[in-house]
Design brief:
alpha/beta; Cobalt-precorrin-4 Transmethylase, domain 1; 5-stranded parallel beta sheet; Rossmann fold; metal ion binding
Length: 329
Amino acid sequence: MGKGIVLADPRGFCAGVDRAIQTVETILKAAKNSADERPQGLPPVYVRRQIVHNRHVVGDLAAQGAVFVEELDEIPDEAVAAGIPVVFSAHGVSPAVQHEAARRGMHVVDATCPLVSKVHREVLRYVKDGYEIVYIGHRGHDEAVGVVGESPKHVHLIEHADDVSALDFPPESKLVYLSQTTLSIDETRAVIEALKNRFPWIIEPPSSDICYATQNRQTAVKSVAEKSDCVVVVGSANSSNSVRLMEVAEQALAGRGRAWRVDDASELDPAWFEHASSVGVTSGASVPEALVSGVVTALKTMGYEDVSYVTTTKEKMHFVLPAELRRAR
């Protein structure tokens, strides 16, 4: 039997990532068609933070003219006066960032994933109703920073089940938990169990905040790992869902082999595959398919010529562009 590749389906772009990238691309295209209207020396668009957590995507958009900044104070007043659009990334921002943009009169185009925006709205609703909120997320992640920023006094961030012991709420307090969208059901299960044991009256959100794409990709990579001797996950190191895909794959391999994360085919090490007859391949939710194709091509040169697929579900989710861009098209 020949050596082969097992491709996960679904993999790659989710609807929120696709929407965010299209947002920047739409602005770039419009600016290209009206370049003479923009003051000389100013870019067509600014983007606060990485639009999605993938360095290739960011690099490609930067090559087309987008300027990425960490904070709004890096954007000159001249650009603000000229109405140069400022895009907020798919991960969302805190009210403090929104207020700063409004204070300076910036032309903001919000590319926050609708699923992330939903969690922001839930925070505001629960705080208004007098709840303390336990938020399960990764400290420092852009999405978590934005959500906690909605109400820092009432949103309590925890990452692990061990963090629950540090929380202290009286029995009469109204308590609810929410979670970062890029965490799967498996990831949050132990934390939620610990919360319920410590605070039996804590309530669950009305509907799951787990991103459909996160769960679908983890389910798919488990199935792929069961049919593979090792797994390659394409995705950047700062992509929460890509790193977790690698961890899930490693667990599903159950000691039969390793899982590796790479940004692209250039990072593949032939030594990884010396004893593997089948290699599983998947990618994070912010990874262009071209990068997966590059990995597949590289593996074929190593003798992995047969390609098969494991399909666990077919995704049909689609998010429309921000309203002002729909009007402009």
